[in-house]
Amino acid sequence: MKYIAKRIKIHFLLAIAAMMFILSSCNKDVEQFATPVVVTPAGLALGETIATIPDDSLYYKLIVRGGMLTTINNKANQFTMIVPNNAAMRQFCVALGAPAGQPDAVYAGFISTLIPVANAASIVSFNMMPQKITTASIPGTFPNFFYPTNLNPTTGTPGFNPLVRLLTFPSTRNGNWINNIPLLAVNLAAANGVIHTAAAMPAPPQKVLAQRIFADADMTYLAAAINRADSGVAPTTSASLVWVLSNFGPNITVFAPTNLAFQQLLTVQITQALIAQGVPPLTAAAQAAFLASTPAVFSTPALYPVLTPTVVKGIVVYHLLGSRAFLNNFPTAATSYPTLLNSAVPTHPGVSLNCTFTGPFVSAATVKGIANPTASNILINPTPEPNGTSDQFFVNGTIHKIDQVLRPQ
Fold first, then answer.
1. Which residues contact 47 (CB under 8 A, 6 or more apart)?
2. DSSP labels, 23-72
3. Phi, psi (5° rounding) for residue 392?
4. What is the pLDDT of residues 336-360, one digit of tens each?
5. What is the value of pTM for the model shown?
6. Helix (H), strand (E) at residue 400
7. DSSP 8-state assignment for residue 99
8. What is the pLDDT of residue 41?
9. C-alpha span between 65 and 93 (Å, rounded)
10. Contact 260, 224 (CB under 8 A)
11. In whole numbers, what is the pLDDT of the chain averaged over residues?
12. Most buried pick, 7, 46, 179, 380, via CB within 10 A?
């Protein structure tokens, strides 16, 4: 860690590039062009197409509820639509409070009367991309490629920005996916776009990464490490980890060690440091266990010379990928990828990722630090927060909980 501590200087800078178009004039008349003739595509529009599919009838109700039918039937615009089938819509309604095991008429009524109009519009907008995207144009590379959706989360807020859009992450690696949801059918053509059928509802994220990390009772050590790494850094600047984890712009993956993972590593490391100072092994082990028993270990002055902000930041950023990765997009053979530590140490080997599929879903996944004797297990549970532990979807990234702290050297 001494080598990395000497070199690390991480600055997270988010920039928006601007282009300037310079119009020049000359003495001759401006060339005249004929007005182009707009040809309306033939065939059924997206909404009309969905209306003809019996297994999409509940999602059609959601489209109508959100007042989105005119938008998706406008043949002057092209859209890609992710459409959960009726089974997925039933699950979605039950998750919102509808009774389970009811006929579709009950769920249709629930959608048409109890889901707020604005919520329905937001969900449909999140599952629309303002261009035609077939699976042939979706890469199967790692990490997930992203596309802007039609949902602008700043609409109706004082900070409205017409250029902002939430992102969605389709992939053709290990199958066809939207985020971590399988696509059951793809490339159904309509006059003004294409439809992909999803096995579950892709819901727009509501929170940023920091909100989960600083609220999760099993991430208190990670939260304390982030605060220690930010010592002396204003949380309003891009050099701050808290800033990166709290803002809309970044798009990262967090491998989040559990509290127990931190306790185990810190106990071993502190024990070894105390023994090196001449403390008897049994006494060193007892003292180390006590110090490591609380997240306050990162704010203990006696440990400041060892757990410096630079050292702790190096450890934390080694747990961050500079892009979003869902488990279904992991390689099925161990493969190394860079982390944010590579912005300070470009030649660092990064971390090794691997996943195992059972049927269509990931049943096991690992991430290995270069100095870890064994790979850390990702705790598989993709259900939404607060209980989910993998593929946790946030506005600015994804979280996977792991059972070891990753060691960069």
1. 60, 63, 68, 69, 72, 73
2. P---SSPPPP-PPPPPPPPPS--HHHHHHT-GGGHHHHHHHHHTT-HHHH
3. -80, 120
4. 999 999 999 999 999 999 999 999 8
5. 0.86
6. strand 397-402
7. P
8. 66
9. 14
10. no
11. 89
12. 46
192 touches 38 (CB < 8 A)? no
351: CB partners within 8 A, 6+ apart: 255, 318, 336, 337, 339, 367, 368, 369, 370, 406
Q: Write out the E strands in 279-396.
A: 320-321, 335-337, 351-358, 361-368, 376-377, 392-394
Strands (E), 89-217: 128-129, 147-148, 167-168, 170-171, 177-178, 181-190, 193-198
Pairing of strands 397-402, 252-257: parallel
Nearest to 294 by CA among 364, 234, 237, 221: 221
Rounded CA gap, 205 and 397, in Å? 10
According to DSSP, residue 171 is labeled E
Q: Report how far residue 356's alpha carbon sits from residue 375's, in angstroms, rounded to the nearest whole number.
A: 14
Peptide bond preceding 373 in cis form (omega within 30 of 0): no
Distance CA 53, CA 28 (A): 57
Instruction: Delineate the domains of the chain, giving CATH numbers in brackets.
Output: 46-154+164-198 (2.30.180.10), 207-402 (2.30.180.10)
Query: Using an 8 Å Cβ cutoff, are 173 and 332 in contact?
Result: no
* Residue written as token pair 């930041």: 313
